[in-house]
Amino acid sequence: MGLTFLALHWFCLVLGICSTNVSFAQKQPQLHVKYGWGQLEFDWQSQSQRQEYISNRKYIPGISAPIDVDVYYSPDGNQYNKIFVTIPRFQEGVPIGLGTVTDNKSDGNPIITPYPNWSWHLNSEQCNLNRIVSVYRIKIDECGRLWVLDNGRLVDTIICPPQILVFDLKTNKLLSSYEIPRSQYEKRSIFVTPIVDVRNQCRDTFVYAADCQANALVVYDYNNGNSWRVTDKTFYPYPDYGTYNILGHSFDLMDGILGMDLEPLNRGDRKLFYQAMSSPTLNWVYTSDLKNQSRFASDSGSSPQIFHTYRARRDTQSAAMAIDKDGISYSGLMSEVQLICWNTQAPEYGPKFWEVVANNKETLQFISGIKVINNYKKNYQELWAVTSRFQRVADGSIDVNDVNFRILVEKVDDITFSTRCKKRGPSGPPGGGYGLFRP
């Protein structure tokens, strides 16, 4: 025991290993696990319904995989708070596309309740007015509205027109629905990410919807009820980045534009940062250019000059991203199984400018959804993320006796403390729209 201590003490003094590791650990608070699942379980209307779904292969236990998370902190009290998860129906046996996590459990797995209720998820092929078919990602804005990007795709086929739904989270009532015009998507289209741009205390709203297979954006003007398509080469995947390798498991996925978020408002404009998932690059475009419908009226790809790409590259793929009130972005590195931060005000992108803020091979696998959430009661921001053994979902090797899916959370200030990402000087005001409006 004494010799071991002396040897360790020598390494500390001569090599500085101990002090370096402690400092590194202090910079890396591990996001704590809020929820974990071996397999997803749902709040069935009855046991007979569950059995019927299993018999008809509408529910195959162990198949459903959560992709995104968002959180509503109600100003009316904790009993109205909601934690949303999306469950895209890209394979057979997924019964719902969107739900909220409950405190009830089945075999240790938190039970998910369909949102807003079961009726929205039944008989999807009928394309009822009140329907949710398949959802990859959602967004809750600072006006207390939930934006749902329903791609209308069941397994490999678009069975209903893709749509953008808006719910009032105080009442859970539908505020509006907008079907994306047929001319603005293709048979291969998969709409995966909605980014909501709110101005003027909720009176002016645009949505930027990413189509990761047709490599396009649809810009939706909520106030005027119309939309237009935008394309550019920076939306495309890179063939060399189409194979994913995560902890010894590999699969192929050629996804284009997917991860996106907005910087805080700056002199009346904002940059939309974005990345194709199967690519090594980060890009940006001014939202004022995207909102100029006339620019794209005759040609969706008319303006390559407005899109910008950083020179530095990643060594691996990255999916979702989120940006906080200080302009610090957060995203995952797939092969490295890490979470990084990067200040959007930095002159360049890449390892010299970002910093690893969480490194856990068990809990950080495949970060598919990530959000910066404003906790109004505590007056700080939180980082929420969905991680999964998606590589095992992809190759069919998932073991439901293990924890395969997680929702993680950590206070933003604790994540970026003492990192190069941390903004110097006063921070911006809290708020999902970065201080524009508090519900």
From TrEMBL:
It holds the Pfam family MRJP. It is found in: Secreted. Keywords: Glycoprotein, Secreted, Signal. GO terms for cellular component: extracellular region. It comes from the Eukaryota. The keyword Ribonucleoprotein does not apply. Transmembrane segments: none annotated. Its main location: secreted. Residues 1-25 form the signal peptide. Belongs to the major royal jelly protein family. This is Uncharacterized protein. It comes from Brassicogethes aeneus (Rape pollen beetle).
